[in-house]
Amino acid sequence: QVQLVESGGGLVQAGGSLRLSCAASGRTFSNYAMGWFRQAPGKEREFVAATAGSGGSSNYADSVNGRFTISKDNAKNTVYLQLNSLKPEDTAVYYCGADQGGRGRFFAINQQRTYDSWGQGTQVTVSS
After folding, report:
1. What integer is the mean pLDDT of 64-84?
2. CA–CA distance, 53 with 96 (Å, rounded to integer)
């Protein structure tokens, strides 16, 4: 099973930026669709962004569209999430997921059940 390690979280003021990274093990990373989800205290985990295995297509939640950008570097086995124009409501633990098993053939890319490997998460805190 692929191992995922997120990094790049931290404390930032509203309007600021962060770049999250998710490094993956495995030799077939280019085959995996990758997604970012987040979970705020007391709330359910929600979809943020996802990209196809090639990195050529992306999907975003309405709440982050135009502010966040997902990218995938298959040479580095890493997926990134650039967070711009951050708002206090973006405060959450951010998780990356990998669709190693091809569940994307059956489920939508914005659903948690599509992803069969998860990282431990990285905390993003946006102060007002």
Report:
1. 96
2. 14
Intra-chain end-to-end CA distance of the chain, in Å? 39
Task: Count the alpha carbons within 13 Å of 83 in the hemisphere toward its beta carbon.
Answer: 33
Give me the helices (H) in the chain, please: none
Q: pLDDT tens digit string along 15-70?
A: 999 999 999 987 788 888 999 999 999 999 999 999 988 878 899 999 999 999 99
State the pLDDT at residue 55.
Answer: 73
For β-strands 78-83 and 68-73, DSSP reports them as: antiparallel
Number of H helices, E strands in the chain: 0, 11
Quick check: 2 pLDDT over 90? no
Residue partners of 24: CB distance under 8 A and separation at least 6? 2, 3, 4, 32, 34, 77, 78, 79, 98
Distance CA 118, CA 48 (A): 14
Ramachandran angles phi, psi of 41, nearest 5°: -55, 130
Residue 122: closest CA among 25, 48, 32, 62: 48
